[in-house]
From TrEMBL:
Ion transport among keywords: no
GO molecular function, one term: methylated-DNA-[protein]-cysteine S-methyltransferase activity
Source organism, top-level taxon: Bacteria
A Gene Ontology BP annotation from the UniProt entry: DNA alkylation repair
Cited InterPro entries: MethylDNA_cys_MeTrfase_DNA-bd, MethylDNA_cys_MeTrfase_DNAb, MethylG_MeTrfase_N, MGMT, MGMT_N_sf, WH-like_DNA-bd_sf
Span of domain Methylguanine DNA methyltransferase ribonuclease-like: 4-73
All copies of domain Methylated-DNA-[protein]-cysteine S-methyltransferase DNA binding, residue ranges: 78-159
Family: Belongs to the MGMT family.
Catalytic activity: a 6-O-methyl-2'-deoxyguanosine in DNA + L-cysteinyl-[protein] = S-methyl-L-cysteinyl-[protein] + a 2'-deoxyguanosine in DNA; a 4-O-methyl-thymidine in DNA + L-cysteinyl-[protein] = a thymidine in DNA + S-methyl-L-cysteinyl-[protein]
The organism of origin for this protein: Streptomyces sp. R08
UniProt name for this protein: Methylated-DNA--protein-cysteine methyltransferase
Active site annotation, chain numbering: 130
Keyword Cytoplasm: yes
Amino acid sequence: MNTVYTLIDSPVGELLLTGEKTADGTTLTSLTMPDQPTVPADWRRDDEAFTEAARQLSAYFAGDLTRFDLPLAAEGTEFQQRVWQALDEIPYGTTTTYGALAERLGVPRAEVRALGAALGANPLLLVRACHRVIGADGSMRGYAAGVERKVQLLTHEGALQPMLG
């Protein structure tokens, strides 16, 4: 296994990017935020392997990029993969609800919890924008990196108005 990683500073804290090196470059397998899993001892740090991912993340946080274009290879069940791919269709600066996403995927109402669990297992935060899925009442339901970061990202994208403090 050629698992490599890098750490990138961002407005939402340090990001941990993990990938697999291939003959064609690096395929992104996860992007996690602070307070999430740490780096196993058998991974190797390789900042250069993530040059394009770092460039795109920088452009995203600068407001110049609204859609990521990176090779992705997150591991998950067939159902999780379907849910994660559907996240790619939620436009920047917008939100959708768990129910609307379930309807679009043909997930029965009784299985919406499974959809929520698949979102919670998304290993590619930011890149696969699960932060754009909110409660039907507009509430900020769970986010693996914390609801406060979800609010921060949605505010950055213009989907929420900044809070006056």
